[in-house]
Amino acid sequence: MPDTTTTIAQLLAQAAQQGMARVDAQMLMLHVMGQPTHARAWLITHDSDLPSAEQLALWHALCARRLAGEPVAYLTGHKEFFGLPLQVDARVLDPRPDTETLVEWALEILPGDGANQRIVDLGTGSGAIALALQHQRPQAEIWAVDASADALTVAKSNAEKLRLPVQFAHGSWLSPLTGRFDAIVSNPPYIPSADPHLVALTHEPLSALASGGDGLDDIRLIIEQAPAHLKPGGWLLLEHGWDQSEAVQALLSQAGFDDVQSRADLAGIARCTGGKIRE
Ligand code: GLN
Prior knowledge:
By secondary structure, the protein is α/β, with parallel strands linked by helices. 35% of the residues lie in helices and 20% in strands. It binds glutamine.
């Protein structure tokens, strides 16, 4: 017989004792109680409510999965990115707030409503970057590419739900695309394959995370393919690992990019590097 005499406040305190981050426990509780995951004030006004036996069972199951390392977004099925509600699951990388740096940079180099602009997001995953850009630049022609058919299913479903007219292509980096773009943006896999950090990310698709011995295999491929797909003066913007900005800057310079520079993420780490192809 499940114990239905435990209040929401007590359940949250128990989760904290077990080592769960407060915000994670709050989001899981809101999900279990059928509330939007941003409605944290609800928890304060309902802190002495008693979840039903069914809610309690779901809560305990989700807590166990979170404590075993599954991202909260997979457990609730939702993640907000650049103000857009996305559906996410284990078929795609859990979109990180740090990737908003890449979106902000792309918006800076592409001012206006996007008219006459073509932009592509390589390795779109949930569609996060492409959808954020389409939302901000409604007139732009935005493409989203992924080598994973499963990821494209998730991204397409997000585009439909958000009614954003992103176009999709299945394949490796720029290979399924024709024509030239004003900007190519990507958050590719970039973790070195032997990096101990990968152990903490086993619930996410490895193909979205790891990229060869130095983590730069996919970034090298993208930089190699990009010049032939950029309009004169077009930009390539890449997210990368915390210690890769110098290597990515060097690769861009060698490939004929000018104005090569990096941008910091929310923690102040150089997280994105890009350049403009010579006219
Ligand atoms: N930023 C993620 C991490 O280090 C990795 C995402 C990626 O490889 N593109 O946890």
